[in-house]
Amino acid sequence: MPPPSPPTRTPGTWDVIVVGAGPAGATAARVAAENGCETLLLERAAIPRYKTCGGGLIGASLAALPPGLPLNIYDTARQFTFSLNGRRQRTLTSSSPTISMVYRSEFDAALTEAAAAAGAEVRDSTALTALEQQGGTVTVKTNRGDALRARAVIGADGSASRVARYVGVQCAQVDLALEAEVPVDERTADRWRGRLLMEWGPLPGSFGWVFPKGDVCTAGVVAARGNPAALRAYKDDFLRRHGLLGPRPFHDTGHLTRCRRPGSPLARGRVLVAGDAAALVDHWSREGISYALCSGSLAGHAAVRLVTAADEAEADSTADDYGRQVDDVLGVEMRASGTLMDLFARNPGLVHTALTRLPPAWHRLDAYVSGRTSVAGIMTTPLARTAAALATRLPLGPARTPSDSPPGS
After folding, report:
1. Listed residue (157, 177, 373) closest to 279, CA to CA
2. What is the value of pTM for the model shown?
């Protein structure tokens, strides 16, 4: 006797709709599909699409990837050069191969393909235009004129997220990053191969970076939003000093990075947010890929439970549980990175000296980058506690720019 046919799904209805096919959204869609949910993944751009990002995968990111994910790695950083606005430069060697360099267009496409292989339907060039929920159903309207319905929706549509505005995400820190992908000649490529640069910049909380990717270097600067002219001047000076200003870049872009305010909502009814849409980003390094992969997985599992929730009281409880899980894992990290950011903004020279002259400080950072410890683990060490206590007695530089507004406002 043949097995019974699966029930026919009503056109336009899904168990789970995920908005945004970055690391958080693609991961959430894959997890939901793997757990038997009829899942739709929407992406406003055509895949593959360019994404402003350094493209460095730390150990926590690599550990969170699905097994066997095909990934083009263009370099692996074994050496870290640190400098203080171009001075006091020192290069340290990692105890193990550390940061894997990728292009986000390829990385996100691979994660999206993994979601499709798990059974999710992918629709690119499809943007969300409106969102509403009623009676246990969420309706997603798109630029194609569709009105799609689901039992759960996950917003993973980046730092300018429409879903985040709907949920009411609030930010404690908003930064502007300017980045260029610069073609380099063979001699320059050899000089950077296996080595990345982190330079603590002249603006409060700022730094510049160079990530090598063979015949291309991804380079940029980041600082608090509010003084774009000064940041552009720093970027030009930074690229010039490192021989990256002359070649015409393949991409020359900017974007905002946002860090969540503690207690900011992560759900509204059956609508969850993850990754950049939830403003889950490290305060100090502005690293967000590992946060996106982790929160995307948590959101995918939460969506599965929302689909099977018996009533709205159970759905609300599931959404609350998701918020607690994110806070238990990533909120702890963000609070620790916020403390580190405060120390760094008050005295970047102190941080630079600790990293380059005190081996325990470098070993801890190396362990974090390679995935052997966390930022919270770093900040509980006696050295970090002493430095943080000292920082509270130091004068604070020009004010950073917090924001109570949702991402994208």
Report:
1. 157
2. 0.93
